[in-house]
Amino acid sequence: MIKTTNxxxxxxxxxxxxxxxxxxxxxxxxxxxxxxxxxxxxxxxTLLNILGLLxxxxxxxxxxxxxxxxxxxxxxxxxxxxxxxxxVFQSFNLIDTLTVFENVELPLLYLxxxxxxxxxxxxxxxxxxxxxxxxxxxxxxxxxxxQQRVAIARAVIPNPxxxxxxxxxxxxxxxxxxxxxxxxxELYQEGATILxxxxxxxxxxxxxxxxxxxxxxxxxxxxNREMTTRE
Amino acid sequence: xxxxxxxxxxxxxxxxxxxxxxxxxxxxxxxxxxxxIYLWVNEELVMDKFxxxxxxxxxxxxxxxxxxxxxxxxxxxxxxxEFLAEEMPEVEYATSTIPPEWFGEHLLSVGNNTLKAVxxxxxxxxxxIFSYELIRGDKTEAMTDPNSIVLSRKLANSLFGSIENxxxxxxxxxxxRQFRVSGIFENVPSHSxxxxxxxxxxxxxxEIPPWTSLQTWNSSGPKVxxxxxxxxxxxxxxxxxxxxxxxxxxxxxxxxxxxxxAQLYLHGKYENGKLTGGRIQYVKxxxxxxxxxxxxxxxxxxxxxxxxxxxxxxxxxxxxAIGAQRNSFIFQFINESVLMAFVALILATVLVWLFLxxxxxxxxxxxxxxxxxxxxxTATSIVILTGILAGIYPALYLSKFNALTILREKIRSTxxxxxxxxxxxxxxxxxxxxxxxxxxxxxxxxxxxxxxxMGYEQDQIVKVNIEGTLKDRLQTFISEAKKLPGIENxxxxxxxxxxxxxxxxxxxxxxxxxxxxxxxxxxxxYGYIETMGMEIIAGHGFSxxxxxxxxxxxxxxxxxxxMGIEDPIGKTVENxxxxxxxxxxxxxxxxxxxxxxxxxxxxxxxxxxxxxVRIEAGKERDALEALRTFYEDFNPDYPFEFEFLNExxxxxxxxxxxxxxxxxxxxxxxxLISCLGLFGLAAHTARQRTKEIGIRKVLxxxxxxxxxxxxxxxxxxxxxxxxxxxxxxxxAMNRWLQGFAYRIDLQWWILAAAGLVAVVIAMITVSxxxxxxxxxxxxxxxxxx
Lengths: 231, 785
What we know:
The complex is a heterodimer of chains A (231) and B (785). Chain A has 231 residues and is α/β, with parallel strands linked by helices. Chain A has a single domain, classed as P-loop containing nucleotide triphosphate hydrolases (Rossmann fold, 3-Layer(aba) Sandwich), CATH 3.40.50.300. Chain A contains eight helices and ten strands. Chain A has helices spanning 44-51, 74-84, 100-110, 115-128, 144-156, 174-189, 201-204, 225-230, and strands at 2-12, 17-28, 33-37, 59-64, 67-68, 85-88, 162-166, 193-197, 209-214, 217-223. In chain A, strands 6-7-8-3-9-10 form a six-stranded mixed beta sheet, sandwiched between helices. In chain A, strands 2-1-4-5 form a four-stranded antiparallel beta sheet, with helices on one face. In chain A, helix 3 packs parallel to helix 5, helix 4 (115-128) crosses helix 5 and helix 5 (144-156) packs parallel to helix 6. The longest helix of chain A has 16 residues, at 174-189. The two termini of chain A are 21 Å apart. The model of chain A has no long low-confidence stretch (mean pLDDT 89). Chain B has 785 residues and is of the alpha+beta class. Chain B has three domains: 2-42 and 282-447 and 655-783, no CATH class; 54-265, no CATH class; 468-637, no CATH class. Chain B is 51% helix and 18% strand. In chain B, strand 13 (269-271) and strand 14 (274-277) form a beta hairpin. In chain B, helix 10 (280-307) packs antiparallel against helix 15 (415-450). The radius of gyration of chain B is 34 Å and the shape is elongated. Classes of the chains: A alpha/beta (231), B alpha+beta (785). At the A-B interface, helix 2, strand 6 and helix 3 of A face helix 1, helix 11 and helix 14 of B.
């Protein structure tokens, strides 16, 4: 699904050049749940943004679903993102002028899915996230946990090849956090490929494989035995 | 997708009502201005175009080559029409007319039913050239008999109570001549420059003074129109017509030429023989002003949309992350601004409907708001253009952010964006200041003209037409009128003080043969100069005490200067036929656009047309009442009608007054809309800097400090606008003032005052918002972030 080789990303300010990612080579297969961990500023979000095609590497190769995408323009990347990638953000990023239903429906609008099918799929996704009764509410009327469940529904609705989660529980209390992690685990068990950036050891334990990043480099990679046995 | 955009549009309105209201008010006012001007321009553009053959109708005009430049007249010689119809194969029909503005109002009676109506004299093919449709009678026959009269539907109804069986009946003209009705025409539409209710044959004019003398080539009287054949070569024809006069008299200063009739209304101003414009200048001016107001409103929309961008960025970021392309945002945002403009259009239509009567008064038209297809098409086009104009910048600006920047970095605003916004505010205020300065200058100039010493006492003089019994017993009327209470003096004259006079050349001793100075000629009666309150600076006025005055001539100062005669009193002109008996101080009888012209006055009691009555100041009401009673008794067949000369004089500045009034409104709107935008931006800035204000207050800043901090930036923008607008206004207004021979000096304080007004208004607008932010509890403001 994902294969990067010697991926580098540097940021340049007027005087200093910072290397955020330094020759990162990573291979994620289909139906893997990978957690990326590391201290603040180690480059994990940068890596996630590049893997999510929101950003471009400075050098190196990135093959996504068989295509070399490292040198893709913004418009080409946008085209691949559409329907193939689902994002879950720490701050939920729901559009506050749209209802829960309309937020979840959004990716299907861009995929030009017919109206009747859209409705069925949105209601089904909301049902799965146990939030169907809130379809007509606006994001501000929901709790943080509920908002993140809506965000996950929005991420999964186009049946993406890859779900990227950036600190998905960062803004939630432990109860809501656990619920969100259980939902991601369910999706993984149903066949989704998930890449998650997290600070939390607890959250990382839900993943199948844990990649540790330090100063822009992968320092360790470990298979989560507990998770594997759980399977 | 469209539904999705519509939902977002409505929800964003709900979320930010104040921005919506500011945009709605601004755009709807701007659109209302554009619609009003559209209605007006539309009416101006169709003037005289209703004539079926308007593109083949030409008017014969004349350029007269005087020593001081070429003057253009819209009239030509009496025989011109007949000559052209007979000699020029390109001419299908030609007609000669004494137009309504000269022929004027006359008394018509049928039995005991007597009324006044405006008429004109026309020659036989008039109704074949112009599309005043004959609803009764035959247009080829209607004007062939010199005893024919053709009436409008309205006049026929007023005289006969019906339009049926009127043909062949008699109408009495001025109670001394009968005409037979030969046709009835449909009422003249409002978009005709020629407005008349009846027409007599020019053949009849040979017996109606003073039009009897128009039959020679040397005369200058009728307006002549021709209908050229289809496909006629106009440049060729013009060249041929230009030679007509020279062929008759090699020394003539008159050159006849052609002007397209239907275009004269808008393109009728000639300077030194060249077409230089006309009303089209006002059409252009007001179209530009309306566009500027709309642009000011669009700038509000742009500024508020980009300032409030942060509220939309999250939506853009998320949508981009899930695969929305930039184009879709451009489409979405332009869509929103077009929708906004459409909502504004609805309000604008209501505003137009409300203000149309007032607007009609100002522009002196009867415009109506008809919700028909052309209106819908125009309105839709304006809305789409406005939407694109207002929306394109926000659309490009908002859609350019990439998802990552928005979602990770929480951008606020970029410096280029805030520079653009500042630039736009400067443009708005520059335009507003330009408007304010123009309004003040136009107002001061008009005030100046109205308070000018005209050289005679126009405020106290009333003009009464000489008609009916007055014609026969004028001297009795005048001497009796002078005895009435409150009446100081009275005399009579051939011309009013306003508008065109007779003009002609003169011979005097030592005159350069090439000098063909045109003198304005006033035919007057005894006591005229005294009645008018003009100042005699040498000699004396026409008086019965001096016997030989019938051969006397009185000049104004300019005339004496032009002729260069030393010690003029007692000298003669015209080879001894006229003796100079007096010199009158220069007075203004034309609009103050023009310099004083050389004038002479001669005694012409037989040709006078108006009685001038001078009324004692403060006794106007009683004097007029006494005059009315006396007049009605003296001249029972005619209603007593009078006009103060100053009213007459004011009418010359109708278009300036119109410009003044309209620009006052437009300037008000421009500054109002600009302030709305500033208000929105100030509110936004205050909100954005809430935390900063909190911190400053905690650190000891006073309310005054904070208000100054927040207002400073805006005031600086207004100051920059003043610097930009002032020289432009200076230049433009100086150019406008050049059109007046008598004008105010553009004083620095006008410019300074306009700037000050702008600053004060901006300050009031901004400080309200700043004050609110400054008075807020700092703890609360610190918590808001």
